User: Fold TRAP transporter large permease protein from Litoreibacter roseus.
Amino acid sequence: MIDPSTIGLIAFAAVLVLLALRVPIAFALASVATIATFFIFAFRTGTFMPERAIRATTSLVYSNSFDLIHSYDLSMIPLFVALGHIAYRAEITTKIYDAAKVWLTRLPGGVAMASVVGCGGFSAITGSSIACASTMGRICVPEMLRMGYDPRLATSSVAAGGTLGSLIPPSVLFIIYGIFTETSISRLFLAGVLPGLLTLAGFILVIGIWVWRNPAIAPVGDQVFTRRERMKAALDAWPALLLFLVIVGGIYGGIFTATEAAAVCVVATALIGFAQRKLTLSGLWESLKETCIQTSAIFFIAAGAKIFVAFIALTGVAPTIVSTVTAAEPSVIVLMLAIALIYLLLGMFLDPIGIMVLTLPLMIPLVESYGLNLIWFGVVVIKLLEIGLITPPVGLNVFVIANVVGREAPIDRIFAGIARFLSVDIIVLGLIMAFPIISLLLPMGM
Assistant:
């Protein structure tokens, strides 16, 4: 009879193989976990008895997927996804970029800086890095190329800025992390604020230094805005600022839970859109349809992951790994560097949600054995996943931008520009790991 922990390791390897073959993550996790669970129960007595395994396996699969889908915390995912789609159709998400462009267009690299600020504002409402890169890429990149910006700067600034959706709340990745680790999602949201703003400031600094060293890559626009136009552009961005304050201020002040904040913002966004005549009934309907499609995909992945987590717990592979690592007695620094390396390597080939649901069942027991704060560790993980979105050879945000701009900016040129922003990401990651207070300051004051 094969030891259950050995079956767990074989199953983990099988999932990696299926993912390399481009099998959807939900089907890879659920199928491998179900089949492996069946074999564990069938061989429990030492002989193969499939009739005893059927009921136990179906019970594990059904109960775990059912409990997840009926989770209260999971209900905020469709709410925040709907918020992003409705805000986009109501033209709320683009107002921050418009305001930043009006105020910064006369600065060297000002439109690229405005693009990063716009990505940060978009992220603060939608919570999706891919959606941010796709939407802002269609708006910002053509504008910068028209002005004569170097394609490397135009595309890489938006690709990097799009990753801010992973850290700046609300973040779908934080929601999934909170559900699977049973940590407070509200505190996770607050923990991502300062690291997200630090990353945003770093990206703006990169653009400033890049343009200062080579002014030709970012011609200054000839359009001059009056003071009245600048004030109007700033005031037009009030809905986006209001929604961000409701989410962060409401959660920090104890007025709302994260789910309640999402519901309030969805209603407020729809009302603002209708009041400003930017949102129509057909636009609202399309937003809801897109929400259903995107949410269904996330729920399938989450359900498959929950089944896989239950299977990993059944095998006892996580305690085996914990005992093996602790027996080696690595320091916390060595442990975190090893975890960072694993996530960075996986980020080169897999999407963020896939990496998270695949690794958390093994990482969390290990981190807990060292007594590390799970809120802080969640920020570290999300930051690593954020870096993976722009890391070659499979940086999803880079491919999204390349798909948007077409032949004007080949993927290799986008990656050439991304290197500068990656350096900032690594520095911010180091600061977060070295000084946990950056992540924990706001949650501690909640």
